[in-house]
Amino acid sequence: MLEGMRSDLRTVRIDPRNPHLCRYLIASMGSLPEERLRVLFLDPARSLIADEEVQRGSLAQLAIYPRTIFRRALEHNAASIILVHNHPSGDPAPSAEDLSATRRLEEVGRALDVEILEHIIVTGTRTYNLIEGSAQVRPRGKFLPFFLRSHPDPADETDALAQRNAETAMRRRILRRQLLGNPELFGEPAWDMLVDLFIHQSRGQPLSMSALCITAAIPTSSAMKLIQRLCDAGILERSLDAHDGRRSLVNLTPTIAHRLRAYFAEGAE
């Protein structure tokens, strides 16, 4: 499955915000028990040249090894790179070490004419684009997004709680699948699809038909038939991607999204 996802990335222009890239990184790194640093090497057209693991261990050690990263970038004749590392804790917020290491590497990259396009932090359920988000964060032990608002909105708090609980539920389901295997015995592909869709819609991220088939962890043909059944039942709805007419997006219907919000606001299963 991972090899197929990696092959798909080689056929498109790499965008750090692309949901396919995010899903690939979550699938390949989200459940790792230790921190690892990977680098995606890109050509001037942002096509993927190589995807390599360059370090294991805390990002606090990263300043020791910039030569490894940029030596490989120069060997690949890469015009830009994307740094990727995982947070086994499940918290995607960048640490002070993450930010300082990224700044140091950006300085080295500018000197060598190799752009650091993004630094993506990966957990079991989500990704965080550090460079894109750094203008909206502030230091306080960890760097966390902050928003100015006079009074908290209870509806927003319920939405956030439901999203967190859904993410916890999905993380546990992925762990169960990894530990027990046998998806034909323990899998619930329809429910996995609904939970994943709820999480993505809560984040405002679209989910394609092909990505949803991967979530189901069953043969693609079976997953597509299941999606059609869910659409026929009024649980899901399909639409064409406004930016790519060849791509189908899948959403929860408003009624089902509302019910799942109420369900996950009560707990994480």
SSE topology:
Layout: H1 2-9, H2 19-29, E1 36-42, E2 48-56, H3 66-75, E3 80-86, H4 96-112, E4 115-122, E5 127-129, H5 130-133, E6 137-140, E7 142-145, H6 154-180, H7 183-186, H8 189-203, H9 209-216, H10 220-232, E8 236-241, E9 244-252, H11 254-265
Parallel strand pairs: 3-4
Antiparallel strand pairs: 1-2, 1-3, 4-5, 6-7, 8-9
Provide a brief overview of the structure.
With 269 residues, this protein is an alpha+beta fold. It is 48% helix and 21% strand.
List keywords for this structure.
alpha+beta; Cytidine Deaminase, domain 2; Arc Repressor Mutant, subunit A; 2 domains; 5-stranded mixed beta sheet; 9 strands; 21% strand; globular; UPF0758_CS; metal ion binding; metallopeptidase activity; HTH_MarR-typ; zinc
